[in-house]
Design a protein that fits this description.
Elements lengths: L4 E4 L4 E4 L5 E8 L2 E3 L8 E5 L2 E4 L6 E6 L6 E7 L4 E9 L5 E10 L5 E9 L10 E6 L4 E6 L2 E10 L17 E3 L3 E6 L8 H4 L10 E4 L1 E11 L4 E11 L2 H14 L1 H17 L10 H16 L16 H4 L8 H13 L4 H13 L24 E2 L2 E2 L5 H18 L2 H21 L11 E2 L6 E4 H20 L3 H21 L1 E2 L4 E2 L2 E4 L5 E4 L8 H4 L8 H13 L33 H14 L3 H17 L9 E2 L6 E2 L5 H21 L1
Antiparallel strand pairs: 1-2, 2-3, 3-4, 5-6, 5-11, 7-8, 8-9, 9-10, 10-19, 11-18, 12-13, 12-17, 13-14, 14-15, 14-19, 16-18, 20-21, 22-23, 23-26, 24-25, 26-27, 28-29
Amino acid sequence: MPRDIPLGNGSLLVASDRNYQIRDLYWPHVGQENHALGHAFRTGIWAKGQLRWFDDPGWQRELKYKPDTLASDVKLKHPELGLEINASDVVDFHEDLLVRRFDITNLSSETQEVRLFFHHDFHIGGSENGDTAYYEPQRRSVIHYKGAHWFLVNGALLLEDEQPAWNPTQDTAAGYQVGVHSWSCGLKEVRDLQGTWRDAENGQLSGNAIANGPVDSTISFTLHIPGNKSRSLYVWLAAASNFEQVATINRLVRQRGPQAFLDRASAFWNLWLTRQLPSLQKLPKSISELYKTSLLVMRTQVDNQGAIIAANDSDIVSYINDTYSYMWPRDGALVANTLNQAGYLDLPREFFKLCARVITSQGYMLHKYNPDGTLASSWHPWYRDGDKELPIQEDETALVLWALGRHFQRHGDVYFIKPLYRSMICPIADFLADYRDEQSGLPLASYGLWEEKRGILSWTAGAVWGGLTAAADFAENFGEHKRADRYRQVAAEIKLAVEKHLWQPDLGHFAKMLSQTDGDVWLTDRSVDASLCGLWQFGMYTVDDTKIVSSMNAIREKLWVKTEVGGIARYENDGYHQVSSDIKIIPGNPWFVTTMWVAEWLAKTARSQPELEAALELLNWATKHSLPSGIMAEQLHPISGEPLSVSPLTWSHASYVASVLAYLEARNRLT
């Protein structure tokens, strides 16, 4: 199930599903560790003698973000209960704190007693074993902890007869009644016990004060709402490494009032977004709104220590027995480059500094990394047919260097680049220059960007060319002209080899890849792959080169999904999440990334306003197939259009932002 509303600050990430249930909760890194593991943190309302959790089909739901900020805007209505809820959530920009506000309206004419229940299904540190949940009476809150992971949940009613206000001399802000009204801490997932949320279904909680092992908790609040009136409730969750720290955050909320944190977080994320926005007035509103939402969503997926995470949606575990909560250097480099294009300097800097910390002494990046920079899981072997081989995707190494070069071109931050020149730039460039096939002149075989096959890909050759060219520019800037000449010479030789071995004149497009069989025999995969875009994206060819034009036309013809959904597949007969074997109609599932590559190319090559409309159509396609909240999945079901695989995918949002920027640049050029 997609994560419709991710909220985060670079250390705490909370993601809710389409039923407005928290499903993933990461701390202290974005993507590491997940203390929910996809288990639902249920929220429900008891009224008229019955409890309805938010996943009940009787709820009418609308989940969006508030305009131009990282705050949710959720509307819920349950006609049977006669209740309507307007809710908003934020993660504070400074404290590791989730604050939620619920405005509950009684749609009937009679006063209703309404009880709100909030259930917490923690699996602290990725496991339910050894957890403790207890009621803390002094703070009237419930706390979950294990080791250096502490989570405090609390809430407050907004009083009707007092204006909320912060008075530094008082322990509690005026206008609030702080503390949970009832609670239950209990066991789950053992002895057929399902958890304390079952305890809530009669409208009452047991008041059990502590439980340890595989535990959960539920808290509740009681409101009496007159007919056709509304009452407001706040709940919050604080994360820290010990009791004193979560208690301090709780005290801050109690003293200042939870609304102060909602207001300040909304203001901060609006400031972060709007300080760098280009002029969007001439864009259709849906496109400009999705552009802004994409930037905010990208921010939620970036850890404060530099890791740009591919996706944080734990439901994918059921399909691949792993997650996407890792930093792939490729994804990170492309997202960092887009953030740079959009005017954001600090996040890419942290990414490049992290890359400098994790690069091997030989100058290459490995498959992927955990958010804290440690080496992550991999399926690429170090051994094959009696020999050691590098388990790498060479484009990941090259694109870090290419993106760093683009960063320096835009910002010219000499003192940032200076320590990276010897520690990262030169080692990467030397590795790229040496890691070549003597026979063909191309880069040596490595795994491709789709991580399925090992060979020499057109995409990888384009990325290596881009990385070496960036390195040559850096060497020139640092006065090392012989080094620069060497990098440029190798890049030129790689381009000549691409022309010789990968261009297919009889087909009119580049080959996807070369793969080596026994001995010196090379097989050519002549199928069409959207990754041919790498030959122009990283500068080896201009966008209007005749070979590129014919290759892009082949992509548009062969990889367009010929259903009502549309979109561009990755390659012919793509088997990942495949739903149809009719590859003439459905060559593969449509991906946002690949479709936006085509949109970007159409914008860059447009010579008139009518030609530019083709790019606009694909931008509109992306807005149409995003979730109502603006979230983009990795791919779509080619018949139903439902999101498939992880959602959101950071790369999808970055590709959309890059395409919008290309469209705006083309529009300015043509007008």
